[in-house]
Amino acid sequence: QRLPDVAIDHHGRARPVGVYGADIPARSGSMVPALDRLLELTSGDRVVKSLVDSIRPVAVQASGRYWREAAQKYEPLPPEAKMELARDVSLLVERVQMLSRGDAQQLEWARRLAAVVQQNEAVLRFGMFDPTVPRDHALADNTLWVLRRLGAGERAVYWAHNAHVQKVPVQGAPVPPGSFLGSGMRFDAVLGDEYLAIATAYGGPSRDDSSAAAEGSFDAALEKVGKGPFLLQLSSGEGLSQERQMRFQTGYLNVVPGKAFDAVAYFPGATRAARVTP
Prior knowledge:
By secondary structure, the chain is mainly alpha-helical. Helix content is 45%, strand content 9%. The strands form two sheets. It has a three-stranded mixed sheet, covered by helices on one side. Strands 3-4 form a two-stranded antiparallel ribbon. α3 runs antiparallel to α7 and α4 packs antiparallel against α6 (79-98). It is globular and about 65 Å long.
């Protein structure tokens, strides 16, 4: 069936959407992709090549498909190997920062990739749930770098789990005892009112274990509002200024919705992502 004629707005061609990966490669599973690209961008610098060649064997040995697998490979490494890795990565960052000859854009990307290598090493050394929250620090640092690259009037969408978006500390049974200062808190501190934290929630069975939303949870309350999908602006008013449970994979985080988010996008259900083949 022929689609009806519509007016086509060509402004997008002049200002196309750009997509960045703010997370550490392979969900903190490997620094090798960043090393490979860094070597391409700094080809000809013998010091960078020497440092990358020194880092690569340990980086390959400690690589995994995701952070937990990488951590299991990193943990049994000799203390000397871990210290040498941290030292060489620090020297790599210093060397790349010193580079001044060449294309300005390539140098900017090289410095960012060196920072990503260091972020990945920090996750291996400290652990994902260390109080220094190395992964969330990396997410915030990389996203703020993207913002600095935008032109006047341009905006960025930071697409991440609610735990990385919320403006309050992350706490609840699925994470270790205590609170974790997520990247959303840093955005709130740096950007102020220019940062809008939008949560996502869904009704029906859990995507992970097929259970219904727990009674009294924020998800269950949203399910009673309407079928959805809908976007609901939040405030610290009645019902939103009290701590509630909110779905987090196979468990629940504890949040005060009106303080954690500016709005919530609600969907009637969620399914696992499916690979689309051409």
